[in-house]
Amino acid sequence: MIELSSKEIAFMLTNIPLPQHIKSIFYNSINDIKLIINEDIASELRELCIDRFDTYGLDINYEPTEEGKILERLIDKLFI
């Protein structure tokens, strides 16, 4: 089980094209301080974060962008 903060959830809702079933989980816990997700959801979210990082995570010098740094932390956190 992995714990996500409300800040992490807000970032993913704003920046990552999430499937409806994950959006529903997030919106149902929007007022919670944290959300605990299972390994299947974590794995799916990790893949979505990796896809986003591949497109927006690095600048022209291959240094992480601000969004890339957040995505790197999420990818590490979601790795099971």
Question: Can you put this structure into words, describing what you see?
Answer:
- The chain has 80 residues and is mainly α.
- The protein contains 4 helices and 2 strands; from the N terminus they run βααβαα.
Oligomeric organization of the protein chains:
single chain
- Spatial extent as radius of gyration: 12 Å
- Strand composition percent: 5-15%
Across the major sheet, the strand order is: 1-2
Number of domains: 1
How would you sum up the major sheet? 2 strands, antiparallel
Number of helices: 4
Derived from helix and strand composition plus strand pairing, the structural class reads mainly alpha
Q: Topology as H/E string?
A: EHHEHH
Number of strands: 2
Overall, the morphology is globular
Mean pLDDT: 94
The end-to-end distance, rounded to whole angstroms, is 9 Å
Brief overview, please?
The chain is built from 4 helices and 2 strands. The protein is 62% helix and 10% strand. It is globular.
Features:
80 residues, mainly alpha, two-stranded antiparallel sheet
Topology of this protein?
Elements: E1 2-5, H1 6-15, H2 20-28, E2 34-37, H3 39-56, H4 66-78
Antiparallel strand pairs: 1-2
Helix pairs in contact: 3-4
